[in-house]
């Protein structure tokens, strides 16, 4: 066995922020609240839950009858050699065990249905919540971690609901049922049986106090590993381009090592429970058999052979619920850790509109920024006092060095981020008073990285307007200069693409994105590096499609290639979050400022 398993393991954590630490500590202390929230989902199925409880009660009673009747058979029929009575009792036992099996199957069948419906509701609510969360939430978290919450954590809850709810209820009923029956038969023998209970309680307390910590760490480390895997797979081109395969493998091994350690100790400590219970079960059996047998030798002793058999069997059944409760407690802790992570997302503040927000039926496209400032972090401003106005139908270009704030301007216009101060208006209306969904319906986005869904080309273009007919989709493809290459594909518009758009070039993906926007028919266009990394011939097709698309629409264009925005009505030059120059291409060249310098540098590069 390796040294990390044989030596004491010191708990190691990946550094987290104070905000995250406070959130995690709060949730660790609030596991009862988490169970209460899970119950709120379960309680929607009270009818079936009542049937499950009824079946659990019936199965618990029947499980108690079996050993009792066996003891009766020994004392009343075997000792007396009453063959007929023994046959009747055996027949009764057969019926009891058949009914017991049926009740067990019914409670399991109904509980599985309840659990799956509950998890379905929880998964649906989580997915809906993710769709309503603001963009900043995703910018600060690994996508793989969110995937882990959608899959691993909810699966943990599902597995626990499928088995643990019934097991816990059954264990509690069986425990108290056995205790009552044993007290009725013989208080003395009951006291003998209970001698091992304090040892069980102390052992379980010692173990569960340690496993709870490791199960929570296990879930957190699993999220870290999933996040890293998703990130690495998404960035495979970069990994390979920089020959960093060994580096990412090393990083993965480090994260996997932490997960392995947390999982090992969680499972190792929880594995002590059944071993401890088996030892105590055997000890209890030995005590009952020894002391019970010695008592049965007395002539006037109330203890009989049948009673010893009953108590021996009940002792096993008596400790089994405690064993089951301990095992289920560990499972429950794992599920609670997963549920906490799910509820953490559900408790995040949604991207909500302010009260009284309106819908715009039509948008002309007049846009104005008034003293707008924004910062991602409190320490520094990304945009400082931006002031400019755009008339409907105009083309405005945003240029400047990397990190100057160009994309931030667009993010605020589309309300992915809200300004810290100032006002942004469309047709004279503050965009904060417009419903986000309605605002974005009047906007069309053609971004540098064209995202395609795993669907047909027809469905990818139709994403711009789900109500569009096939003919309208084809017409949009023609206007985007995409119809020609689509027609040459083996399955034409029914060609299935994956997210990476395998089988078509980057430029062709961009043409599909333009067709999608044409179908959406927005009033305001946002073009973010739409022609970067494109070959010259495809760029010409894209530029032609964009020119058709921009006719009659207000257009915001972010571009590094200054030759693509020379016809813009207005060019904003940003540097370090400030608009340092504003004017047409000719005016800015005449000023001889930053734009003229960038233009001169661009001509040298060409």
CATH names the topology of the largest domain as ABC transporter transmembrane region fold
Mean pLDDT: 79
Structural class: alpha/beta
Number of DSSP helices? 21
Mind telling me which CATH architecture of the largest domain this is? Up-down Bundle
What is the distance, rounded to the nearest whole angstrom, between the alpha carbons of the first and last residues?
A: 63 Å
Question: Number of domains in the coordinates?
Answer: 2
**Oligomeric assembly:** single chain
Fraction of residues in H or I helices: 55-70%
Unreliable sequence segments: 1-29
Q: Can you tell me the CATH class of the largest domain?
A: Mainly Alpha
What spatial form do the alpha-carbon principal axes imply? elongated
What Rg is obtained from the alpha carbons, in whole angstroms? 35 Å
Strand order of the largest sheet: 6-7-8-3-9-10
* Count of strand segments: 10
Q: In percent terms, what proportion of residues is strand?
A: 5-15%
CATH superfamily heading of the largest domain: ABC transporter type 1, transmembrane domain
Biggest sheet overview: 6 strands, mixed
């Amino acid at each position: 066995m390796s040294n990390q398993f044989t030596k004491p393991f010191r708990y190691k954590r990946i550094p987290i922020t104070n905000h995250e630490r406070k959130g995690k500590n709060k949730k660790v202390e609030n596991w009862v609240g988490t169970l209460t929230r899970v119950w709120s989902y379960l309680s929607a199925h009270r009818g079936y839950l009542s049937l499950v409880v009824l079946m659990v009660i019936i199965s618990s009673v029947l499980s108690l009858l079996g050993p009792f009747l066996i003891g009766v058979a020994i004392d009343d029929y075997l000792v007396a050699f009453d063959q007929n009575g023994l046959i009747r009792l055996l027949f009764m036992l057969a019926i009891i065990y058949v009914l017991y099996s049926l009740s067990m199957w019914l409670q399991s069948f109904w509980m599985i249905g309840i659990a799956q419906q509950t998890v379905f509701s929880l998964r649906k609510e989580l997915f809906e919540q993710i769709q309503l969360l603001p963009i900043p939430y995703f910018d600060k978290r690994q996508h793989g971690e969110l995937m882990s919450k959608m899959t691993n954590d909810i699966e943990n809850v599902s597995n626990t609901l499928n088995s643990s709810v019934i097991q816990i209820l059954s264990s509690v009923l069986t425990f108290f049922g056995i205790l009552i029956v044993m007290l009725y038969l013989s208080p003395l023998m009951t006291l003998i049986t209970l001698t091992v209970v304090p040892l069980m309680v102390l052992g379980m307390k010692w173990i569960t106090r340690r496993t709870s910590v490791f199960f929570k760490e296990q879930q957190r480390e699993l999220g870290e590993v999933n996040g890293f895997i998703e990130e690495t797979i998404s960035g495979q081109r970069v990994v390979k381009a920089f020959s960093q395969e060994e580096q990412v493998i090393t990083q993965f091994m480090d994260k996997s090592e932490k997960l392995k350690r947390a999982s090992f100790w969680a499972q190792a400590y929880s594995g002590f429970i059944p071993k401890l219970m088996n030892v105590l079960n055997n000890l209890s059996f030995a005590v009952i058999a020894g002391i019970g047998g010695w008592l049965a030798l007395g002539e006037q002793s109330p203890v009989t052979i049948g009673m010893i058999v009953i108590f021996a069997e009940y002792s096993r059944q008596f400790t089994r619920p405690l064993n089951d409760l301990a095992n289920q407690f560990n499972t429950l802790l794992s599920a609670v850790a997963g549920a906490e992570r799910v509820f953490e997302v559900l408790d995040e503040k949604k991207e909500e509109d302010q009260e009284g927000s309106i819908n715009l039926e039509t948008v002309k496209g007049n846009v104005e920024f008034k003293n707008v400032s924004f910062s991602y972090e409190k320490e520094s401003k990304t945009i400082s006092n931006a002031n400019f106005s755009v008339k409907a139908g105009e083309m405005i270009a945003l240029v400047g060095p990397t990190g100057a704030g160009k994309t931030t301007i667009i993010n605020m216009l589309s309300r992915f981020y809200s300004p810290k101060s100032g006002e942004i208006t469309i047709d004279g209306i503050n965009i904060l008073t417009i419903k986000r969904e309605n605002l974005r319906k009047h906007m069309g986005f053609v971004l540098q990285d064209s995202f395609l869904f795993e669907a047909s080309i027809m469905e990818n273009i139709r994403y711009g307007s789900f109500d569009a007919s096939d003919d309208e989709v084809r017409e949009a493809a023609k206007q985007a200069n995409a119809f020609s290459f689509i027609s040459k594909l083996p399955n034409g518009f029914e060609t299935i693409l994956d997210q990476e758009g395998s089988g078509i070039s980057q430029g062709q993906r961009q043409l599909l994105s333009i067709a999608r926007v044409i179908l959406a028919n927005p009033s305001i266009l946002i073009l973010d590096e739409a022609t970067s990394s494109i070959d010259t011939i495809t760029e010409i097709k894209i530029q032609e499609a964009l020119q058709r698309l921009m006719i009659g629409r207000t257009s915001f264009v972010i571009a590094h290639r200054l030759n693509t925005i020379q016809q813009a009505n207005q060019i904003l030059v940003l540097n370090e979050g400030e608009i340092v120059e504003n004017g047409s291409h000719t005016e800015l060249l005449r000023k001889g400022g930053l734009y003229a310098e960038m233009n001169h540098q661009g001509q040298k590069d060409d």
